[in-house]
Input
Amino acid sequence: MSAREIEVILSRQLADCLSVPVFIVDPVGNLIFYNEPAEEILGIRYENTGEMPVTDWSTRFKPEDDKGNAFPTEKLPLVQTLETQMPSHGEFWINNLRGALYKISVTSFPIMGRPNRFLGAIAIFWKIKEK
Amino acid sequence: MKITIWGCRGSLPSPGLEKNLFGGNTSCIQIEHDKTCIILDGGSGIQRLGDALSPEVLEINILLTHLHIDHIMGLGYFKPFYNPNCTINIWGPASSSKSLEKRLKRYFSPPFFPVQLKELPAVVNIVEIDNSIFKIEDIVITSEYLCHPGPTVGYRLEIGKSVMVYMPDHEPALGSSHFPNLSEWCSGFNLAKDADILFHDAQYTQDLYELRKGWGHSSIEDAIAFGKLAKVKKIVLVHHDPGHTDVQLKEMAKGALQNITPGLEAIMGKENAVFHLP
Output
């Protein structure tokens, strides 16, 4: 298999070393990695999901707003970053795959390689409430 | 393809009787193929190369991996720059902000050097590359950013089925997940894959590497592990630490080259060594 760009490889390395949850996607939105702290919130190990297209991960955790309505996929910060190649931020609820309901705060930003190559996006997120 | 090492010392030129065998000049390798002349990096070794070059060679391509001083310090002393009949194309990595030309001008200007880039008599063309594929005559060249501080690329040169790869400054153990097992997540893997000959950074012993992680260089053991992962046929270990004498480099080689995988040949790079690929 071909190797990924060095910026993406280093992003994964950094994510792997952090205790803040991190989720990384490629330029078309395929999930390519999330770290152990993210596994805790999402309720499933990366080894068990592997890579996932955007259509899967954006619905699999059933994002909801405060009223329990489905959170529009296009408003998810990572999806917005993929669209605009700009940082984005948002808060919403997710259904953890172990049955827990967490409200998370998400900040996403593009991976822009030298000199100006869009290589994907990174989301960092953290739990702010749970039900 | 004829490949000549004109300099394989890392970081700082280090002449001396105790370093005569491996040489003291910094990074510079020449590729000759038919009438094409390609020079990989402009370290102090390029000065001797310039003196040895046939006056009939009037077009030269210099491929810079990056602009750390040990890779460009010889440029101002390269004779063809002072020949108005020469055309010199300098290829090098793009950065996020300043152009390659602006960054090169930092070197070609006082107080570092008395002659400015625009004052050089030769015709000088500067070409920025990133993760690129380009051709020089019939040589197909691929460049890709590598794990090393600052914008740094490695080069893969292909002529027919012959493949030569050059990554003198590279720290794959830092820039890879589960090194040296996952090729998909290993810096430099695409460039090095299945190469006939790979010139790779091997500046440190494993003990020294533990003290210098993140400086952008490899231990001799990691360089060999990278060569195994990429399934190269031959690895030439270069960018020797300026503090290492011939005796120390021989000792390092003896230790690290003992358990080489069958099918992989590993040798220490030496100044003036010549290699041929069909």
Observations:
- The interface with chain A takes residues 93-96, 128, 130-131, 144-147, 151, 174-177, 183-190 of chain B (CB under 8 Å).
- The two ends of chain B are 6 Å apart (CA to CA).
- Helices of chain B lie at 46-52, 69-72, 100-107, 189-192, 206-211, 220-229, 246-256.
